[in-house]
Structure formats: C-alpha cells, structure tokens
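Duplicate of #3305? Posting structure anyway:
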C-alpha cells in the first residue's frame, strides 16, 4: 500500500473513533466491542476491494496499456541501445521506422492519457481522504461545502430573499455538562483513589473564551495510610503561556495526561501500596499495550467533563449529497477527460463509481454510529402516569361527597389557595364537616381538583361524565424540556394555538420583570383571578383555572 492509502487508513481510524479507545461508556463501549472487526475492514477488506476493482474493466485496460508501454520500452533499450530513448521518453529519429520503434510509439500513444496502477490507487485514496477530511472537524461533521478554488464555501439555497445559515444548522448541539463532581475509584488491592477539583475557571454568562483543561497537581497528592486513601487534586483552567508552548496546539489534554502519568508515580516513590494501586494493569488498548488503572481513570474523568459535540440529524443524506457534489466538482475533470478521448472515458467513469461505492460504504457505517447517538438523544418519553386538573364547577355534584372526604385534596387546597383564610362574608360553614365542604365547593366553582389524590375508579367515572373531553380541555401542562414538549404539542395544537409561552423569565422579586418565580398569569389575563400554581388556558397551553 502506498502513502496515500496509509494516510486514508489513519483518517478512517479517527472517523471511527479509534482515538477514543480508552473510553468505555456510551457509544464508545460499542465501538470498542467491534474494534477488531473495523480494523480488519480498514487494513484488509478495503484495500482488497479497491485492488479488485482496479483490475477490472477500463481501469484494467489503463493498467495494461502502462505495462505494455514499459515492456515496449525495455525491448527498445535491449535492441537499439540506451541512446534510442531520451530522458523524456522520446524515440530518436533514426529508429522511428524500425519495428520495435513503431511498436514503442504505438504503445506510448495508447498510454498517453492512462495513469499507472500506483497512480490510480493513489487517486482513489487521495479523493476519499480529501472528501471525508474536509467535512470532519474535532469529532463532528460540519456542513461546510468547499465549492471551487475561488469561492471558499457553498451553501444550499432555494431562492429565499433572506437566508440565514449556520454551519451546524442541521445538527443538534450537545454540551457535556461541567458538573465538576468528585471522581472516586477503587484499585484491586483495596486502595481508594479520589480525584478532587481544587478550583475551576469557567466561562461566565455564556461568553466563550479560552479552551480549558484538567491539570492534575502532583505536588498536592495526599496519602492517608489509615484509610488507605489516595487523593489527587486537579485544576480546571486555561493553559498559561509556558504551558501552551510545552503542550503545543493539538491534543493538549492528551499530552497533559502523558506527563502526569510519569510525575504522579515519582511523588509516591517508596509507597508500594499506592504505586500498586495506580500501576496495576486494568486492560489493554487497541494496539495491545497495557493500560494502568491510573491512565484509564484519568482519561475517563477528563473526557466526561470536557467533550462537546454535535449530532447530525441526517448524516447519511448529508454526506451522500456532498459526495455526489464532490465527485462532479472535483473528480470529473472535463478538460482532462476531453483530452483523453472517448476510448478512455469509461475508465474515468469507472474510477468515479469506485470512489462513490467505497465512500458510500464508509458513509453507511458513520451514519449508523450517528443515528445510534441520535436515538439516544431523542429517546422517547414514556407516559407512566396521567392525572387531570378539573375546575370544580365542571364536576357533577354527585361527586362532591367523595371530594369532601378526600383529606389529601383539601390539604393541597389549604397550601395552594389558603382556603382556610376565605373571608366569612364569602362563605358560611365549617370546612371540617362534609356539609360545610360541599357548600364550599358549590360556592367556589373555579377551585381546581387534582385527580392525583383520587383512585383510578373515581377518575374513570369522572372523565366518563364529559361527552367531548377535548372540547372541555382548555389547556395542557407538560413537565418536560422544551424540545420534547414542543414536539409533543405541535401536531395537535399547530392550528389551534396562536402563541405558546416557553420558559418565562423569572427573578427573585427584586426587579420589575412581569413574570415572577411563581407561575402567575401575565397582565391582561381576565380569566384568572387568583394566584394558582398553573397558568390559565388563555395564557399558556395548560389547564384552565376558571
């Protein structure tokens, strides 16, 4: 295999996340399980498939014409001497009418636009490398289409008057949360190792700044012989100028870990128990090299807290479209094709089909990885319980005795609505008796009943009293993140709802923002007269309050 092939294999290992072999959670665990199969495909199956294709059809004829030219050249040199052909391959004038000379000129003409076998193989690898590397950046595929030598990028455009475009417009952005939780693991000899964060310099107010790294502090290692506990301290901060020079511009966290793997054992020299806990082999990496417990957990700890990535919504469709665009724009060179003539045109098209077929296999595999991650992120929300909030005025009075006996519901009303403080001129009766409670229900039809406090039989009988439950439901309360909630609501309420309030701003009561920490109806809402836990239907798509 030539250098182009080896370079492309190195890129495939990066695309298939071989550089993350030290991680054993999430998608990385699945990749590690199939790593040997993938490596065999990269090093054996893929080169054989390309070689097999190059030995067929018009590409084979190109290779044969090059071989025939080389054989004719050798025959000329053997028959007519080394002076018959100059350094550029031209045949000397006195020998052009000879039989071997004429055969050499014919072979040279046939092979004029045919590329040697090594050049054809290198062209395939180079084109595949160029295509996949131009869209791959820091673990993600970014939608930046390179158009030509003059224009740097091209974007999909359908004639819109104004079109705003971002490189990640068709992707989900996933940010690994910076929990900065302490990390603890136990070695086989019973020693407990703690990773503790001493300080963290984080970005403020969503303002992006310098890239930050986990830097262990070997000098601050603490060993407790009584509890057999080893504590390693970390800082999370940007690199200093001196550290930037030492660690370079790429894979800085990896270089930090490699340095620490040497420094920490030096600080524990003479402590056999602690050294055994850190240096014991936990597993082997993809190349068969031993990985110690310290190295394994250092990579786990730093990766969980520092990785941000994108999930493409349709990676297969995106890369397939871009591959077609690349082949038409980069591989299909019309000037060279015209110069080669019709006889060699089939070889060019066969080369393009080969690049597309191999690229398609790689795209299918990458899409499977991406679709699996998307499935995990878009995991469906399962309904485990369903409860209803219904205004008492809509409930038949036959249910009032059962409602009056439900202490949990009345306790909730006391906490939410302070019903025990209702003025006497608005209600006369005793809330400790059934008769008084029934009278209170009749006097307050806007009171909201929560079926959470009642049996399923009560809920079923109550819902059966409504002929058209959808018409009676003024709103819907969804306790979820925005993305899941909107996807649930959009099908049913797309045509019925003019606007939806999402995540109203809150404060601590010290400013003049209209929304407060409590879920209050915004000003101008005339349906809601009380401060309820939930908004009324005219303000937000949640249960009505009157």
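Output from current build:
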């Amino acid at each position: 295999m030539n250098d182009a092939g080896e370079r492309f294999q190195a890129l495939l290992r990066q695309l298939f996340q071989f550089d993350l072999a030290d991680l054993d959670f999430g998608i990385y665990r699945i990749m590690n399980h199939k790593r040997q199969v993938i490596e065999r495909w990269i090093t054996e199956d893929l080169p054989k498939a390309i070689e097999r294709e190059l030995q067929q059809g018009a590409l084979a004829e190109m290779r044969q014409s090059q071989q025939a030219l080389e054989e004719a050249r050798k025959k000329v040199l053997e028959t007519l001497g080394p002076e018959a052909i100059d350094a550029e391959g031209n045949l000397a004038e006195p020998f052009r009418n000879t039989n071997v000379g004429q055969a050499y000129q014919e072979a040279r003409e046939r092979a004029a636009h045919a590329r040697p076998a090594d050049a054809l193989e290198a062209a395939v690898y180079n084109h595949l490398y160029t295509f996949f590397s131009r869209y791959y950046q820091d673990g993600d595929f970014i939608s930046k289409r390179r158009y030509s030598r003059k224009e740097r990028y091209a974007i999909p455009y359908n004639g819109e008057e104004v079109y705003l475009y971002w490189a990640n417009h068709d992707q989900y952005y996933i940010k690994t949360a910076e929990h900065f939780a302490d990390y603890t693991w136990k070695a086989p000899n019973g020693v407990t190792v703690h990773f503790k964060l001493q300080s963290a310099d984080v970005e403020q107010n969503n303002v992006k700044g310098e890239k930050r790294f986990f830097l262990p502090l070997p000098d601050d290692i603490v060993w407790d012989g009584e509890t057999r506990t080893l504590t390693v301290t970390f800082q999370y901060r940007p690199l200093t100028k001196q550290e930037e020079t030492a660690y370079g511009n790429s894979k800085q966290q990896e270089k930090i870990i490699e340095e620490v793997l040497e420094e920490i054992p030096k600080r524990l020299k003479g402590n056999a128990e602690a050294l055994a806990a850190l240096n014991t082999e936990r597993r082997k990496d993809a190349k068969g090299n031993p990985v110690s417990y310290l190295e394994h957990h250092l990579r786990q700890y730093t990766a969980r807290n520092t990785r941000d990535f994108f999930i493409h919504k349709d990676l297969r469709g995106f890369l397939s479209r871009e591959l077609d665009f690349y082949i038409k724009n980069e591989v299909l060179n019309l000037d060279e094709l015209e110069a080669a003539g019709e006889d060699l045109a089939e070889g060019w098209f066969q080369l393009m089909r080969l690049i597309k077929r191999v690229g398609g296999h790689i795209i299918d595999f990458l899409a499977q990885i991406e679709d699996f991650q998307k499935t995990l992120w878009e995991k469906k929300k399962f309904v485990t319980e369903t409860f209803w909030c219904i205004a008492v005025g809509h409930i038949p009075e036959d249910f009032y005795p059962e409602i009056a006996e439900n202490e949990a519901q009345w306790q909730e009303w006391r906490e939410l609505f302070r019903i025990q403080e209702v003025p006497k001129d608005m209600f006369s009766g005793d809330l400790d008796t059934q008769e008084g409670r029934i009278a209170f229900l009749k006097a307050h039809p806007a009171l909201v009943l929560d079926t959470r406090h009642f049996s399923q039989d009560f809920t079923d009988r109550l819902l059966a009293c409504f002929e058209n439950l959808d018409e009676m439901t003024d709103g819907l309360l969804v306790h979820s993140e925005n993305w899941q909630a909107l996807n649930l609501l959009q099908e049913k309420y797309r045509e019925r709802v003019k606007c939806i309030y999402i995540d109203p701003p809150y404060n601590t009561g010290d400013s003049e923002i209209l929304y407060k920490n409590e879920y209050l109806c915004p000003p101008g809402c005339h349906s809601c007269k009380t401060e309820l836990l939930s908004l009324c239907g005219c303000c937000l798509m949640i249960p009505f309050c009157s």
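Confirmed duplicate; merging threads. The mean pLDDT is 75. The first helix runs from residue 3 to 15.
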